Known about the structure:
Among the domains are: 17-34 and 328-379; 42-132, Multidrug efflux transporter AcrB pore domain (Alpha-Beta Plaits); 184-266, Multidrug efflux transporter AcrB TolC docking domain, DN and DC subdomains (2-Layer Sandwich), CATH 3.30.2090.10. It has helices at residues 3-8, 11-29, 56-71, 101-115, 151-166, 191-197, 201-211, 238-242, 256-259, 293-310, 324-353, 356-372, 374-379, and strands spanning 44-50, 77-85, 88-95, 128-131, 140-146, 172-178, 183-189, 218-222, 225-229, 245-249, 252-255, 260-266, 274-275, 278-279, 281-287, 315-322.
Amino acid sequence: MNLSSIFVNRPVATTLLTLGIALSGALAFFRLPVAPLPQISFPTIQVQARMAGASPDTMAATVAEPLERHLGTIADVTEMTSQSGVGVTRITLQFGLDRNVDGAARDVEAAIQAARADLPVSLRANPTYEKFNPADAPIMVLALTSDTLTPGQLYDSADTVLEQQFSQVDGVGNVELGGSALPAVRVELQPGPLNKYGIGLEDVRAALAAANANAPKGYFNVGPQRYQIYTNDQATVAAQYRDLVVAYRNGQAVRLSDVAQVDNSVENLQNAGLLNGKRAVLVIVHPSPSANVIKTVDQLRAMLPGLRAALPPSIHITIAMDRSQSIRAALTDTERTLFIAVLLVVGVVFVFLRSGRATLIPGLAVPVSIIGTFGPMYLLG
């Protein structure tokens, strides 16, 4: 008895087995991840800290160094690199290939909390971290443009609406913003008037800090009870800062506008994004490991009408880059090639054998064998 006779003598079982293989392969085909390149997952985590206006040297000395000191104590760190720029520090940690990235992320979180006491108080928010794969490339880039809004306002809308919504989509690993920065008030001091009034830089800094102090403005007593008075008088735009009193000279108030130029601007001026020669803010979407790129892009596209409605009407959203287009073309070409190959096999068999029954065997065996491979591919990842 040979192997073939087992299936020849049991036609019902053979038919059911063939249908089962074809059905399992067909179901697995729609669940297979689709990506332009093989997914190689490195246990890598990137830590990022921002401090608006700080120079690269300041970021390296006051932010990067304390973080590196605490992150360096984590076990199984094979490589640690840091990069400091204007107002930002990025530290990339690469672990051993056998290290579980989720466990490494918990260690990184603990190290960041331990380093918080050594970081400057002007660091407004704790450093953040994310699982990072240096081999990942963006799958979609959106550009936000407007004829009336400033780049800072565009960036603020992208940060509060698009980034938050896209980060919740299944298959999205990371969302980056570029082309501008969050809105801010920029104060450019003028040495001449400062010297004329005898005002130092520390005087200006103290006045600006006092203008943004979130503290009770006073209190009043009613019998045995005391009531504190709160009001939100924090300055948020340039016009509110210009009349700020910096000092008094000869009984006269010296206002901030007398010694500085105060303008509405952004936190970091060293950013620029262009779309067809027009200023734009870019939303860069990266995939998560093993994500189906086509499915993820389809979900992002389906969200765009609702997001356009949530943004101001003057903001225009343009898809600047869609990486799924090349993947769709390659996938379509592969499917067409497989279909042509099956037809050629069946056609050659029919030409030489001149038998419909003999042609039916490869006509069923070849497609089932191809479709059946999708099942093990899905199970093996």
